[in-house]
Model the fold of this input.
Amino acid sequence: MSVVVVGAGPTGLATACALRTQGVPVRVVDGAVAPATTSRALGLQPRGGEVLGRLGALGDLPRRSVSIRRVVIHVGGRRAGELRVGQPTKLVRQPGLLVSQAEVEARLRARLGELGVAVEWGTRVVGVEQDDGGVVLSTSAGHVGAEWVVGCDGAHSVVRKASGVGFPGVPLVEGFVLGDVRVELPLPRDAVGVWVRGEEMFSAFPLPDGVWRFMAPAPGVAVEDVPAFLAACAGRHAGVRIGAGGEWVWTSVFRIHRRLAGTYRQGRVLLAGDAAHIHSPFGGQGMNTGLGDAENLAWRLALVTSGRAGHGLLDGYEAERRPVAADVLDSTSGLTGLVLGESALARVVRDRVLFPLMGLPPVRKLIWEQASQLKTSYAQSPSADDRASATGFPSSPATTSSAGRSPHRRATRACRRRATCWVTCERCTARAERCSSAPTDTSRGAGSPIRTRCAER
Ligand SMILES: Cc1cc2nc3c(=O)[nH]c(=O)nc-3n(C[C@H](O)[C@H](O)[C@H](O)COP(=O)(O)OP(=O)(O)OC[C@H]3O[C@@H](n4cnc5c(N)ncnc54)[C@H](O)[C@@H]3O)c2cc1C
Done:
């Protein structure tokens, strides 16, 4: 088998789908006995949606999701401001979607099935050995051989540990609780609500099927006490009552860490998703960052496994994706510190300066475009030359961004620099004659190089 993907979370499933669409033989093993049904990540950012679209795995998710238009912030019980998100900008055309990670995984599994691969559940990896010729995984179901292994086995990745890759970082928040409850509430379902009062914080996210996700910092609360704790928070902060009719679908207690793998590649073993980076859930970036890793890695592996590029092409994966993860660690840690207000002075600045600032259109646009992940660009990537030299790569299906104009505009800008492009821009291609092409954002898909001149040049 060319590639074995360990872990059937969003990152592993997306990696496997992307490899299969490029003709690479792939197996997916997962230690769980069956797919998870809990919501976990709930923010599908515009770029994550684009990746799913290019993989043919978006399906009816936009229709099944809740579109978020606003984050409404309350300080000390009073409405203090509103951050409009999901407003179209020149870069971002799609709203952010709230949908359960379980649904995203289900769509990816269905797509993977169409591509002829079924996840091998109940296959827990316990050891990894490699030499120049390949990798052998020791699993609960026996030995599995592969030319390449992609470790998408989450924060406690056995693949990472067995490969000797460090995961340095620090805990950020000691105790945090979440609960998904199906209940009718007099709160707007196109808005995320955030309530802060001194050191306390409470947030409410509308999810499909009449479910609300509540989250709050709460050191020392046991998981069985989460419903009562969150119901009390909802009453105290948002003034809403979760009565006996509220159906608690899922509750969890967790700690927040920020950690980044020392390297993304150890010989024939590569790491992606939470196996390579973990951070605060504030800002809803984790699953989306894993989807971006998957797409970036898959086109490289497809070229390497088919002999069209040398192993060195894989180093560009770390060069391009590790800085993206480092930025996500920084921005989500910053947002967490801001919202939780770690000192009295920080809370005054938060309540009187930063929250009001968020209402300003330029700040709003900055935050929304950053969160969308559509600002990620590899135009300055040290591995741009790899891309240029790796010719003969097949187009992936539907490589045009749903953001429409943004990659086109980037491509147009880059065309002026007369470099080589690995992003297919349908608009350019359609209008163009001939082009030395444009380097831009390879995570927009492993597209054909644009061999055309942008008409708007
Ligand atoms: C409360 C909360 C809210 C979040 N909200 C968001 C959000 O809004 N937006 C967002 O983008 N992200 C969010 N995240 C983060 C998101 O859930 C993760 O980033 C995402 O699950 C990572 O996907 P993954 O596929 O890399 O890893 P995982 O989802 O952890 O999947 C790992 C898979 O590997 C399997 N596995 C583990 N060990 C082994 C082994 N030894 N052998 C075989 N299989 C193994 C597991 O069974 C699992 O299926 C949130 C996280 C939390 C906790």
The radius of gyration is 22 Å. The longest strand covers residues 169-182. Residues 384-444 form one domain. Residues 6-12, 29-32, 40-43, 101, 124-125, 152-154, 158, 178, 254, 273-274, 281, 284-288, 290 surround flavin-adenine dinucleotide (CB under 6 Å).
